Amino acid sequence: MTVGIVVVSHSRALADAAVELARQMLPGRELAVAVAAGTEDGGLGTDAAAVADAIGQADSGDGVVVLMDLGSAVLSAETALEFLDDDVRSRVTLSAAPLVEGLVGAVVVAASGMSRAQVAAEAERGLAPKQAHLS
Amino acid sequence: MGGLSVAVGVDDLTAWLRRFAAVVHERRDELTALDAAIGDADHGSNLDRGMAAVVAVLDDAPPADVAGLLKKTGATLVSKVGGASGPLYGTLFLRMAGAAGDGDLDDAAVARALRAGLDGVVARGKAEPGDKTMVDALGPACDALDAAVEAGEPLSGALAAAAEAAAEGRDATVPMVARKGRASYLGERSAGHADPGATSVTLLVEAAAATLGRS
């Protein structure tokens, strides 16, 4: 089992593209990544109920790290926690990581069987290579 | 203390929500224009979509009790609004539902429920007074409602005072610089316009004043 990852974005296209980019890191492997992005009618927005569902899909018992883009994605993810059972909620980390950079780092570490804390820490380090390169 | 308390039931809350939905629909372009000035230009359309979904629930499967109605309203808004007002308005109604208890609401229970809603919004958005958010209108409304109910005012008058306080709070957001949400990216440029959330929540309290406590 591996730590699950949930991508919460205002845009379905943005989320799917970020997942596709992350998937390149692990060719041929299934990633435990679930997406909750956009409104039902394909518009921009987030839905806390959909986030709660995605957490349920991504959770195999080892917990879930949730990556978000901005604003209502963060509020919806927090609201989603209220909809979860206590035991599931206790296995969820909402990450402050940047979405794209955090996701790429997180999937690699998650796929290698690391813990939720390790996956979350790797996601939060997501900006480090870019910062190091540009400084 | 003294005025006879009027029980607020499912029919009253339904009338409130329907009126709010109608007003949001009517003023959706105005709300979106405010949001275009300082945010991402979707507040009117998002809230309109959410309240239309709430009205559809009221038409198709109206919950039988006050707490159920408020809870269903909150859950519907959380799912259907899309923007930050989804979790914020959703939490407002879900917390009102949690505070409502069993049965209809007397005047004090209406004030308690709205206060619980405000507390939920504050917790969810982590906004403080002066951040240029819906809290700047809803907070004064709750204070005015509490004071008037405590003084024994009839609910209709107490809600009218709350609506007035909300409108003053909304107006006070005009010169503020936003510190929360998409508007915060604009910094000083966010000053000069009323906050869209403070504006819509004023409409919510005004709709309550127009519908609750009047039977």
Automatic annotation (TrEMBL), chain A:
The main enzyme category here is: transferase
GO biological process, alphabetically ordered: glycerol catabolic process; phosphoenolpyruvate-dependent sugar phosphotransferase system
MF-aspect GO terms: phosphoenolpyruvate-glycerone phosphotransferase activity
- EC numbers, comma separated: 2.7.1.121
Q: What is this protein called?
A: phosphoenolpyruvate--glycerone phosphotransferase
Subunit structure of this chain's protein: Homodimer. The dihydroxyacetone kinase complex is composed of a homodimer of DhaM, a homodimer of DhaK and the subunit DhaL.
Mitochondrion found in the keyword field: no
- Which PROSITE patterns is this protein grouped with? PTS_EIIA_TYPE_4
Describe its function.
Answer: Component of the dihydroxyacetone kinase complex, which is responsible for the phosphoenolpyruvate (PEP)-dependent phosphorylation of dihydroxyacetone. DhaM serves as the phosphoryl donor. Is phosphorylated by phosphoenolpyruvate in an EI- and HPr-dependent reaction, and a phosphorelay system on histidine residues finally leads to phosphoryl transfer to DhaL and dihydroxyacetone.
**Species for this entry:** Geodermatophilus normandii
Catalytic activity, reaction form: dihydroxyacetone + phosphoenolpyruvate = dihydroxyacetone phosphate + pyruvate
All copies of the PTS EIIA type-4 domain together span 2-135
What is a single cellular component term in the Gene Ontology annotation? membrane
Please give the superkingdom of this protein's source. Answer: Bacteria
What InterPro entries does this protein's entry cite? DhaM, DhaM_N, PTS_EIIA_man-typ, PTS_EIIA_man-typ_sf
PANTHER family from the entry? Answer: PEP-DEPENDENT DIHYDROXYACETONE KINASE, PHOSPHORYL DONOR SUBUNIT DHAM (PTHR38594:SF1)
Keywords assigned by UniProt, alphabetized: Transferase
